[in-house]
Amino acid sequence: MERLEALLEWGGTKREIACLAAAGAALVGSLLGWEPFPFPLAWVAIVLCGLPILLEAIVGLVTAFDIKADLLVSIALVASVIIGEEFAAGEVAFIMQLGALLEDLTVARARAGIEKLVHLTPRTARCLRGDREEIVPAEAVQVGDLLRVLPGETIPVDGVIRWGETSVNQAVMTGESLPVDKKAGDQVSSGTVNQFGSFDMEATKVGEDSSIQRMIRLVQSADAGKAKIVGIADRWATWIVVIALTAAVLTGLVTGEVIRAVTILVVFCPCALVLATPTAIMAAIGNATKHGFLVREGDALERLAAVSRVVFDKTGTLTTGVLQVTAVESLLPRWDRETLYRLGAAAELRSEHPLGRAVVRCFRQELGGTLPQPEEFRMLPGRGVQAMVEGRPVLAGSRELMEERGLALPPALLREADRYREEGCTVIFLGVEGQTAGLLALADTLRETAAPAVAQLKKAGVTPVLLTGDHENAAARIAGRVGIDQVHAGCRPEEKLWWIDRYQEQGEPVCMVGDGINDAPALKRARVGIAMGGAGSDIAVDAADIALVNDEIRELPHLLRLSRRMMATIKGNLAFSLALNFAAILLAITGLLNPVVGALVHNAGSVLVILHSALLLGWRSPA
């Protein structure tokens, strides 16, 4: 269906382009005196470009008493035709339709990510009926039902684990880069993914109350709450129509010359006013594209110019989402750092856990060489792994695993582990041959360009905020390194919406920068949403107004300054076009302009507006 709609839209655009091409050719032929038909060639432009304007103005006026710029254009067209100035009528109609086409090309329709969220909702569940296990539709699950979830399956409803231990990928809800260990008594959410161990759970929230369904409703409500900006020409249309008609009627009555009145209507047509905004937006979009931004909503840059806060997600936005081993601590003299690191990486060689894969990858990148294959390997869901490496039993995992196997953890090692956790790291304890041997600390990797980008945003006068579902320690560590003073950690999707609403209700428009599925509602609700196009999820990109294709957030300050430069260009265009209009009106009142010359002067102003907007294509932020 989406593809069909896109084809129909593109087909309509092609028809508009063809009509404009034919109308333009007819006007050029008329200007050169080529008249092969019994009627003036300018009538081709009047019919192809003028009739749609006339019909839209009549429908809007009759059905909703909606006064737009089209009404004044229609009056000028009819008046020009009545006094025999077909060329002026065709020329004005052509310019207006050209502006409308540019505006249509500028406004890209947002592609809803709601359908993709729906696909994340599990369709079936394993329901335990006594000794039997039944596959039932997920919507048939009732509160209190016992369900079994196997490794790799998506959790069908919200609930509480009654038996078993596992690790759950909760990125869809919290954006956390690491799976969270779960045991009996812990809560799990629908839409999240069970990674390793199987477990039995009791359903507590089902159907429309489940987490994934609430997420879908949040995206829908956030989209509906974002106001659309009305074109400036239409905002001022009522006053333009009143002033133009008053001036034309008074001039006609005082001078007794209808042609002067018609000339006023022609020169007062808001052609340059209509072109002022879409041409500047198109040029700015072209500039943004060269810097890695895909602008998906035509008025996104207009909205971005007004923001006073830029809210960042952490994982995948300020960080790369790629874990790195930041420290290796050895307790035993006979195991130096490199040897202990090698044993820990070898023990994790067959692990499917993101932490284990990160340890192996980092060892190979940092020290190179080959790792010995473990002779024995066992995954311990929610706790770690145990393996036999070169004849030595090795444990790698949580504090609970060490204590469970009777390995004492010295106070000094626990203090080191706490210090690393306060810095936002994840700690893996290592045991070798029945003794506690040390630990590995892993942390998400900060983007090198994050701190300079935040500094430049501050210089541009906006306040950066960190809004993340991650743990407080990890959030504070990253915020400190990039220079963000305001931090809100542990936020679920609805809490992110609450913060954004709070800022915007205080008159501080927000630009949200995120990458995860859990960021989609916030990206929709914010005045402007920017998604990381490379590392981000498809749903986040679909929810955003702008996608950062190459994830280079160092270009964010340029985009912000570009949006402000664009608005300055638009205001300059508007001031120039209005000044030109009033000057032309004075000349028309005195009889120095006739309709054809007036149209030429007026449309020359439209050309200057386009040229002024085109300067944005090569503009570069001084910073």
Structural summary, described in words:
- By secondary structure, the protein is an alpha+beta fold.
- The protein has 24 helices and 22 strands.
- The strands form 4 sheets. Strands 10-22-21-20-11-18-19 form a 7-stranded mixed sheet, sandwiched between helices.
- Helix 11 (271-290) packs parallel to helix 24.
- The two termini are 44 Å apart.
- Residues 1-11, 106-118 and 221-230 have low confidence and may be disordered.
| Radius of gyration, whole Å | 32 Å
Strand order within the widest sheet? 10-22-21-20-11-18-19
Shape: elongated
- The average pLDDT score comes to 79
Which parts are unreliable, with pLDDT below 50 for 5 consecutive residues or more?
1-11, 106-118, 221-230
In whole angstroms, how far apart are the ends?
44 Å
Structural class by SSE content:
alpha+beta
Tell me the total number of β-strands.
22
Strand content: 15-25%
* Major sheet: 7 strands, mixed
Count of discrete alpha- or pi-helical segments spanning 4 or more residues = 24
Q: How much helicity do the residues have? A: 40-55%
> How is the quaternary structure best described?
single chain
Write the layout of secondary structure elements.
Blueprint: H1 2-31, H2 42-64, H3 69-82, H4 86-106, H5 114-120, E1 124-129, E2 132-137, E3 146-149, E4 158-163, E5 166-169, H6 171-174, E6 180-182, E7 187-188, E8 193-194, E9 199-205, H7 211-224, H8 232-235, H9 237-255, H10 258-267, H11 271-290, E10 293-295, H12 300-304, E11 309-312, H13 314-318, E12 319-330, H14 337-347, H15 354-366, E13 376-380, E14 384-389, E15 392-397, H16 399-404, H17 411-422, E16 426-432, E17 435-446, H18 450-459, E18 463-467, H19 472-482, E19 486-488, H20 493-505, E20 510-514, H21 520-525, E21 528-532, H22 538-543, E22 546-548, H23 556-589, H24 595-614
Parallel strand pairs: 11-18, 11-20, 18-19, 20-21, 21-22
Antiparallel strand pairs: 1-2, 1-3, 3-9, 4-7, 4-9, 5-6, 5-8, 10-22, 12-17, 13-14, 14-15, 15-16, 16-17
Helix pairs in contact: 1-2, 1-4, 2-3, 2-4, 3-4, 3-9, 3-10, 4-11, 4-24, 5-7, 9-10, 10-23, 10-24, 11-23, 11-24, 14-15, 23-24
